[in-house]
Structures are given as C-alpha cells and as structure tokens.
Write a structure and sequence with these properties.
6 strands, four-stranded parallel sheet, binds zinc ion, Rossmann fold
Length: 256
C-alpha cells in the first residue's frame, strides 16, 4: 500500500518538476532561440525549413553533397588521403546552421544539441548499428578551451546520440571521452591551407591507451569542413590499434 502510494506521488512529483523546469527554463529553438510554444517540439517549423538537410547524391567517403550521381568522391576526398571508413552528416553548413553552432559553442546553448542528436539518430540509426561500433569517441578540445566553455560540445553531442540510439533501438553504444586527447592548442584552422591544417593537427591528437576491446569507433564532431580534423583523429586512433573509424557530424561544408 505504502509502495503504491509512493509510486503515485512520485509520478506526480515528476510531472510537477518537469512543468516547473519548463516554466523556469523553457525550451528554445536551436536556430532562432525563441521560446517554443508546443510542448515536446525541439525546433520551430520555420527554422526547420531554414536548415539544409543533406540529400543524395553524396560523396562515398565523407558524406558531403555532390552535384551529380556520377561523382563518387567530393574534391576534398579525391585530393587527399582518407584513412577513415566513411562519414555521415546531417546538414549543409549554411547560415542558419552556422548561427546555431556558434550558439552552442560560444553561448553555452547545450540544449540545442537535443534536436541535432534526435535528428542524427533518426536518420542514421540503421547505418550506425550496421557498423557495429564499440564506442562513440568525441573529437576532443584542448583542456584549457574546455575550461573556458565548461564543456566539449562534441562530447555532449555524443552522449545525447548514444542515449537517443538506445531509446530508439535498445542498442547501447557507450561514449568514451578519455581515449582521444588533445595535447596542443592549435591555432585557428580557418587561417591555414588544408596541407598545413593536417600537419598542424597531426601532432595535436594522441591516444594514451586504446582499450583492448575497442576495434570499431564512431568519431563524433559538430562541424566537418575539409576533413583534416577527422583524418588526424583517425590516424591517431588507428596507430593505437583501432581497426575501423567512422565519422558522424551535424554540419558538413558544401560539396564542390
Ligand atoms: Zn526558430
Ligand atoms: Zn568527400
């Protein structure tokens, strides 16, 4: 009787706490930041249409959109050596996406990642499960940058994707933010050409010890541009003994 009583009130307390937190911290749209009026929605309808979701045909390697079905690889993947197996991306990196990503990184809007994690899990759940990954590994930021921001957006994204995937499919793929480390604070990458980007990054990532059971990895990041970060991380992971590395990201630069 007592147990039932507690269960009953526990449920109500849960609902009350949820309502309370939604009143104090209402959910906001990840693109325009306005308060969402419908309970349960993660983005406003107008903003959903401002985002450019990746459509076929895409590059066989990185997942970037290409202009014709006859093109197998985008110009970046044609020119540069790729050691990762395959990339998956949700969005083209347009103005709306750029604004949203900046909000996450520089204005502490971690909750924006709920929408992206849900959309990534919905789009790629079958592919991710087919890859049989042992672990999600977030692309690390330098510890001093993590201290400034208070979090690593790629790690939060990886945790949310892992949770979504488990809820949708029952398959639990853990997140390990300790495997890959960033030991060098790199200069801003946008000022460098792709060759120098990779050189700059190769020394920046290291793997202290890859757990023996970890063979297949899904690397998680927010933005993929030329692929040099993903490539540098993959090389570090494979040198440490990983067999297969896939990449998943929210945004990818427009294909040529
Ligand atoms: Zn909006
Ligand atoms: Zn490509």
């Amino acid at each position: 009787m007592k147990k039932q009583f507690c269960k009953y009130w526990g449920k109500w307390l849960d609902i009350l706490l949820q309502l309370f937190s939604q009143t104090i911290f209402p959910r906001r749209c990840p693109v325009c930041d306005s308060v969402l009026s419908f309970r349960g929605s993660l983005i406003c309808q107008d903003c959903f249409h401002k985002l450019s979701f990746i459509k076929s045909p895409t590059c066989f390697k990185c997942g970037k959109e290409v202009i014709s079905q006859r093109i197998e690889y985008c110009s970046d993947c044609t020119r540069r050596k790729r050691t990762f197996e395959k990339g998956m991306a949700l969005l083209n990196y347009n103005e709306a996406a750029k604004k949203s990503m900046a909000g996450i990184k520089y204005h502490n809007k971690k909750e924006y990642l709920d929408f992206y994690a849900m959309a990534i899990a919905a789009k790629f759940e079958k592919q991710m499960i087919r890859m049989k990954p042992d672990v999600f590994v977030p692309v690390p930021v330098h510890p001093s940058r993590k201290r400034e921001r208070g979090f690593n957006q790629a790690e939060v994204l990886a945790q949310k994707i892992s949770r979504e995937l488990e809820q949708r499919t029952g398959v639990k793929i853990p997140v390990n933010g300790q495997i890959l480390k960033r030991n060098k604070r790199t200069q801003p990458q946008k000022d460098l050409n792709p060759e120098d980007r990779l050189k700059n990054l190769q020394k920046a990532f290291c793997v202290q010890k890859l757990p023996e059971e970890v063979k297949t990895i899904i690397l998680v990041d927010d933005i993929y541009t030329t692929g040099s970060t993903g490539e540098a991380c993959t090389r570090a992971l494979k040198t440490a003994g990983a067999k297969k590395v896939y990449i998943i990201c929210i945004c990818i630069g427009y294909g040529k």
